[in-house]
């Protein structure tokens, strides 16, 4: 973790795009470690964890929050000093909506190079994608922490495969440095990918935000101020954590599912680096040392009449993956909220036992401390939703 260069406050109703735009307007060497979708709201994203493209170097959002302002169940406006360390701990990864209304965060900005390097290299099954994905699992969490090798998996039509469908693995990556320093690392740790200078683009950190948000080259930074999400569709997502590499036969099963529903998309999101230096109990977000990567399963579609088919598909894929992912509990990322794994009765009579079904998946043993904090600060369960932390007094 780097030392803070400056401190910044941020209204919790802002979007990530607005935050990044504001930082870039004042400095080319400061950034904040959070997600890649500019229209995501800061409040929910930060309070649930906040993983992003520089997290292997600088941790996640909650690791860089130093103060907050919250309205509690009694209508009091509190900062870190007046809310106390237990509540401040809870809203940095345990979800702010269980405990009050977070109206502002104060965060550490981190130092980054003026020039970073991005690349997006795709390989199909005919180009040894299975072997590349298998090897990726052994190096992605151990490679230089300045490099984050994110991996997208999908089914595409391939001219090289006579127009039939094949699996495409896209290595969409950020390196905090120049290409001349990146290439030797890749040649040493992942020569099988065959990365060359022509695959890489040097740019500023703020330009990389546009790159990963899929904006065309040359797009004005002003687009980050747009709060409206484009191309709204139906969507279902789920998540998993992987602690041992998935064998090739397991990957072959994933390929079968992706070819069955060509609207599905998997992300393999690497951990390691700074994420492994923080104890599980330090924040409610417990997914630290020992995790190789997180899986985000997603499927998006336009026709509402097809909803059940796509939802059934992703649930079957999730069931298939059970032998290959974390166990006791089968962990999940709170910011990828999944009501399939249990929900509260939002009328307020959810028991600890009911909530623990999903609570231990998101927070592991930190769930018990979250319940104690909730019982202390909101015993009547005023702040509640389908997966909020319940007080012990709930029946």
UniProtKB/TrEMBL annotation:
Keywords annotated in UniProt: Alkaloid metabolism, FAD, Flavoprotein, Glycoprotein, Signal
Record's keyword annotation contains Kinase: no
Sequence ranges assigned to domain FAD linked oxidase N-terminal in this UniProt record: 12-78
Pfam family name, one: FAD_binding_4
Biological or metabolic pathway of the protein: Alkaloid biosynthesis
Domain Berberine/berberine-like: 332-390
Highest taxon above the source species: Eukaryota
UniProt protein name: FAD-binding PCMH-type domain-containing protein
